[in-house]
Amino acid sequence: QKDPDYLKLWLDSFVSSYEQFLDVDFEKLPTRVDDVPPGISLLPDNILQVLRLQLLQCVQKMSDGLEEQQQALSLLLVKFFIILCRNLANVEEIGMCSYINHVITMTTLYIQQLKSKTKEKEVADQTPIEEFVRHALAFCESLYDPYRNWRHRIAGRFLSTVEKSRQKYKPASLTVEFVPFFYQCFQESEHLKESLKCCLLHLFGAIVAGGQRNALQAVSPATMEVLMRVLADCDNWDDRNPEEVSRKAELTLKCLTEVVHILLTSSSDQRQVETSTILENYFKLLNSDHSALPNPRRCRQWESRFIALQIQMLNTITAMLDCTDRPVLQAIFLNSNCFEHLIRLLQNCKVFQGHLDCLAVSTIQALTAVMHKSPAAKEVFKERIGYAHIYEVLKSLGQPSRELLEELMNMAVEGDHMAVGILGISNVQPLLLLIQWLPELESHDLQIFISNWLRQICCINRQSRATCVNANMVIRIIETLNSHSALHCTCAENLIALLGSLGSQSMGSEELLQLIRLLRTEEPKRAHPYVVPVMRAILAMARKQGMASALQYFNLYHSMAGIAVPSIHKWPGSAFSFNAWLCLDQDRVDPSMTTKSGKRKQLY
């Protein structure tokens, strides 16, 4: 306490001994070290009080400007606290002291200084100041995300609820200074380095991922305003590094995903911001007015960047919906008019000249995510938007790519379209859309690819055939076959074979009449090219063998399906019997259920 030089020497020695714990790069996973720094009880007596006074002196002298020696001491103190917090047993006590408030005060002043220097275009070396800021933010992370949950998250590793429950030590309580600090840092942020903005976003993500209590304190109207402002700024790159700007957008979107997930696990009295408010602002930004273009000289560049940002935002919707409370979040999305926003996005994007297909693919992915395994969401989409409308919108974008068509196939099975035999039909409407689109496709290869896949997925079992028949797919196929001049012969044969398979399940008189009319030609003596394949299809419909010929049956496919009979008030005699055939189709496998115990139907 009486010898500052000795104190600095001791701190230098301590930091050098445990330097491997100074993992201040948020982008890297924490390195595993067998040793741990000492507990507070093993440190010299009154050392924390001495260091608090030293830090306070640095804060008090900052207004006049710190000398080089004091700058070095303040950095050394922050490094010491980071190391101390890597022994997780120390986190709570360090968090209760005033160190963090002093460090935040200094960091605020330093960031203001960095912004001023950039504004005035000073070329002086700012490395020492930047180094302090990075270490200060890493110190905050050590307090509020001691297990580095956020770093694991951005590296693609998601911790389960069980893993989180095993985390013995809790993060320190978030200081009330954080929200004003975070908000202040992003005022006039165009004068702040993109890499430092990324560090600030990393810290916000770490606080939200570190624990629910701190997360709900950090997620406020002010911080949400900052995130939306940062996101809106990501289409305006100027002379900044494109990779850093793209990374900033990615981190902001990951923060918003984490925020949405944490809000879902909280009660209304705990939240300062509602998820619906966040989504409202999110969709408003997603559908920003394209007419407000910047300098015409950079118009094409801006266009490309803005579409890239929109694609990132659409992909984030899918990430948001990948959570345990998915049905609850789907309902919030529906109440936020998400379908209308997404369709409007496709309609508005026609003013752009490139990347339309990528945008359309991401939009379909987002729509699929909102409707995933939700009959209510599918019905809402049919009523509010309708597949006829989305077909017209997609068609107006020009010839579709294979990727876009495959995404519609994924929408139909709510998974990977290549997993035929594993995934069945979850949403039949995209299949009808694909059949309707076939004559419009200029690529014969695409026609053959789509029709072949349709033939496989629709005929895979009785359940799939019944679903397609109930959706009037037979009529849709006949309407498509009427445009036979635009269809490749292999595509037409696939559709007719599909029609025969569905017709063996059920074929009405009107449908049969339409099929026969299809074979009419303007020249009476010239046979229609479909005569032979259509006759084969009709013969296949008429050919009935075995139990597959049953046309009337109860479909007990759904897990909650059953047959309820009214109670018998008066028995016909002493007893009665009931006879029925039972057909057990092979159940399709749900990949999400493979780890859980199997289920079985019970007969009583």
From TrEMBL:
Source organism of the structure: Pygoscelis adeliae
Keywords in alphabetical order: WD repeat
Example GO biological process: intracellular protein localization
UniProt-recorded Gene Ontology molecular function terms: protein kinase binding
Superkingdom of source: Eukaryota
This protein's name: Neurobeachin-like 1
Residue ranges annotated for the Neurobeachin alpha-solenoid region domain, each copy included: 298-541
InterPro entries recorded: ARM-like, ARM-type_fold, BEACH_Domain, Neurobeachin_a-sol
Gene Ontology CC terms, in alphabetical order: cytosol; membrane
Pfam families: Neurobeachin (PF20425)
Transmembrane region(s): none
